[in-house]
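Collaborator request, handled under Task 6.
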Amino acid sequence: MVKPLLLILHRWITLVFALPLLAIILTGLILSFEPAVQVSAIKPQSVDAARVADLIKRYDPDGKARGVSVNSAERRITLQGADSAEIDLESGEKVTEKAALPAFFLWTRRNHERLLGQSWLVISSTIAMVVVMCLGILMGLPKLRNSLSGWHKGTAWFTLPLIVLSPLTGLCLAFGWTFQASAPPLRSARLISLPEAVSIVADRMIWRRSPPSAHAADC
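Structure tokens returned to the collaborator:
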């Protein structure tokens, strides 16, 4: 009696949240290619930290920007928090037309995190997905058969660790749960400007990517 009830709940919850879950899965699949696209576009010496710092000082003299993103493929930077200006690294001028691929990934990420502008829809659909998986586990091990139902059950059970981790980690991100302990606040720390932060990050990246022998020769 319990198993048929679990099966009914399993089917109806899936049916109700089918469209939002399909949109979340598709947008997540698209976003999985974003790191590969970004890494493939990175070339040595493609971005000059000094050039980036100069452009930040030029377009954000009041220091209102809270961050900067670098698109090495299009050789552009975007100031975050000021006027969200997109600046060409070559000419140093503002760009009116945004690059198609980064804009597409941005649109995909926004819909993945806030489907139709509704973050609650994404969170509730993700919770529903976890509940559906738990109901499938409670129904017990399936009988593997060469049918659509048999393939569905077999695939779900054999790939269970992978398909459970994705919605669970997504919920942790949505609620701000993390495995890292928060560092104590540094009361004596000096606030640095965005150009200084760019220089510090660039220096550390160069130090990590360079071989030890290069630094020994410099010393």
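The cover message to the collaborator said: "Residues 206-219 have pLDDT under 50 and may be disordered. The longest strand covers residues 67-71. Please let us know whether this matches your experimental observations."
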